[in-house]
Write a structure and sequence with these properties.
Layout: H1 22-44, H2 49-52, E1 56-63, E2 73-76, E3 86-93, E4 105-111, E5 114-121, E6 128-135
Antiparallel strand pairs: 1-6, 2-5, 3-6, 4-5
Amino acid sequence: MANIPASTSRRFNPADYKTAPDWFSGRFLSALNLFTDPVFIALQNGLTFFENFNSQYFTAQILAGATADLNKFSFKQTISGTPQECIVAAVNLVDPTKPIIGAVTISWYSDSGTIFVTAVNGLTVGSTYNLRVRVC
């Protein structure tokens, strides 16, 4: 649970910024308070970042095949609900002296609690990669 000090205010008070320009103590603080007020309420009621951010990371080591559809793998889903995205979080060659020469993208779907990565595009044939994906 989030612990907010008792002295914490839920809003920025323009009176605390007497020497600030009008745009700051007026428009900016008003807009900022529209964000901070609901965040304060959520944290005051026990919401934490980790409880609110439903995601999973998975790392696979891939020896790149001749075509993208040969670069596939699957893993069990640990997030709650239906995955909305599976994106490349990081990709590195196992041999760090070789550069990655193009964009790396994936095709994927989920079924019965398993994420299936059906193709990894942009890999150099015969090179070994550590590919990290994020599922949300």
